[in-house]
């Protein structure tokens, strides 16, 4: 006869397994997203299991979740790598991101409820960390402001897809936006975020729409500059000759 005591271990095991996989997914995703593990890096299941102090089963489950989100890739030779950054769909992504952002800030401004002190604190933290050169902390402050905006929009569909789009932009902005901001660029970035925040706090839907559009286009301009050649296009093919473009 099966007793109540006999049933307990069978029920407890799946719960531990689920927690392990979700824990690994969250921590590994964060490490990949914030470039603590670089794009293209091979992921060894045995090493990951040792690092996270779990068996290989939660590691495999976490990797499957990350693959579905586009953060890792499974190669034909059964190697798993951090997904390389790809620009082939960036135009479609940016169209989607701008549309989601405009809809989100409009909804938040129209709904009201934004607290001036809270939003000023986000902008202040963003500016302070940018000036200190702590790019990750600055970016997290910016993300925190927009996630707060997402909750104020009171639209679970906008919130869900906007947050996903924000997450998808983290690696490219860490590589090609924040490191390429000079003093003038930092001042512009802070001003753009302050104007988005101010329009939402004052309930100005049109102003919020325009401000977030300008903010994203500014980021795109900096990213494009970061992706461009720095000096190769100015080199002459004639050794010892003048650089291309010189008079």
Automatic annotation (TrEMBL):
SMART domains: HTH_GNTR
UniProt keyword rRNA processing, yes or no: no
UniProt keyword annotation of Manganese present: no
Pfam families: FCD (PF07729), GntR (PF00392)
HTH gntR-type domain boundaries: 18-85
Coiled coil: none
GO molecular function, one term: DNA-binding transcription factor activity
Keywords: DNA-binding, Transcription, Transcription regulation
PROSITE patterns tied to this protein: HTH_GNTR
InterPro entries: GntR_C, TF_FadR/GntR_C, Tscrpt_reg_HTH_GntR, WH-like_DNA-bd_sf, WH_DNA-bd_sf
Protein name in UniProt: GntR family transcriptional regulator
């Amino acid at each position: 006869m099966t007793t109540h005591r006999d049933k307990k271990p069978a029920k407890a095991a799946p719960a531990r397994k689920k927690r392990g996989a979700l824990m690994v997914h969250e921590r590994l995703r964060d490490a990949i997203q914030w470039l603590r593990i670089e794009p293209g890096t091979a992921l060894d299941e045995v090493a990951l299991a040792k690092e996270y102090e779990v068996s290989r089963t939660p590691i495999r489950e976490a990797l499957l979740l990350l693959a579905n989100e586009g953060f890792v890739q499974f190669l034909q030779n059964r190697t798993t790598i951090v997904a390389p950054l790809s620009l082939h769909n960036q135009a479609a992504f940016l169209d989607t991101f701008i549309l989601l952002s405009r809809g989100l800030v409009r909804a938040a401004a129209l709904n009201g409820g934004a607290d001036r002190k809270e939003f000023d604190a986000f902008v202040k933290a963003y500016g302070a960390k940018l000036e200190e050169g702590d790019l990750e902390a600055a970016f997290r402050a910016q993300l925190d402001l927009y996630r707060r905006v997402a909750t104020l929009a009171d639209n679970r569909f906008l919130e869900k897809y906007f947050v996903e789009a924000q997450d998808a932009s983290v690696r490219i902005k860490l590589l090609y936006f924040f490191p390429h901001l000079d003093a003038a660029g930092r001042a512009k970035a802070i001003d753009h975020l302050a104007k988005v925040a101010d329009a939402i706090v004052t309930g100005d839907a049109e102003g919020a729409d325009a401000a977030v559009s300008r903010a994203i286009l500014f980021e795109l301009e900096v990213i494009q500059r970061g992706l461009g050649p720095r000096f190769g296009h100015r080199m002459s093919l004639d050794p010892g000759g003048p650089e291309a473009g010189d008079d």
